[in-house]
């Protein structure tokens, strides 16, 4: 129980930090693909180094095609966070839960209350602010839901080795658009310009995925996603209070409604 509580806290913290760091890297103007290269390529390096201390081989063939889904999902996710602001796009990451609920609705009172709170929250949040960044996060939610289902099927693998294989696959899939767009030339300068945020993005990204995959070994996916949902509110708080994003009160209230609604949907 102590380990599960620690991993849940780690998931919430690292997912929040990951979103903030990707947003900060994106503000330097290097482009979303370069930002993704630093955040996710860096995470692959961190996880491969960790896997060297494990006797379990990296299951690369198992993760290759799932990695394609994650690469697409994380590409849209990163582009959304780069366009920002965090307080606007982060709560929309919880739409994955609503999409899964619509596919398989549960007729419990708690779930319907959760859906109602979610809808009210997003209406408040995106009043006159529904833009391309929000659409990208919604598209990411759809692809991420498919990738999560595939992850559950492989939860018997050693977490570090599986996570290393997954991020190697993700890095290989994103290599093509990064090179074709020419943004590979900006990755090095981006790391030199933002070494702190680059390190934070890589390590938090690796820890966020490793924690969620490990939690799936002990908890139902709905419970794991409930923990993840809390990161949306935390990211919104960071955007408002630390980066002084506009319309702070609206973003805080709506993110809380969205998060509570999401958790009720999951637990319902």
From TrEMBL:
Q: Which residues form the EamA domain?
A: 133-266
Q: What is its main location?
A: membrane
What domain of life does the native source organism fall in? Bacteria
Its transmembrane ranges are 29-53, 65-90, 110-126, 133-150, 156-176, 197-216, 222-243
Organism of this sequence: Alicyclobacillus ferrooxydans
Membrane topology term reads: Multi-pass membrane protein
Family listed = Belongs to the EamA transporter family.
- State the protein's name: EamA domain-containing protein
| CC terms in the record's Gene Ontology section | membrane
Subcellular location(s): the record lists: Endomembrane system
Keywords annotated in UniProt: Membrane, Transmembrane, Transmembrane helix
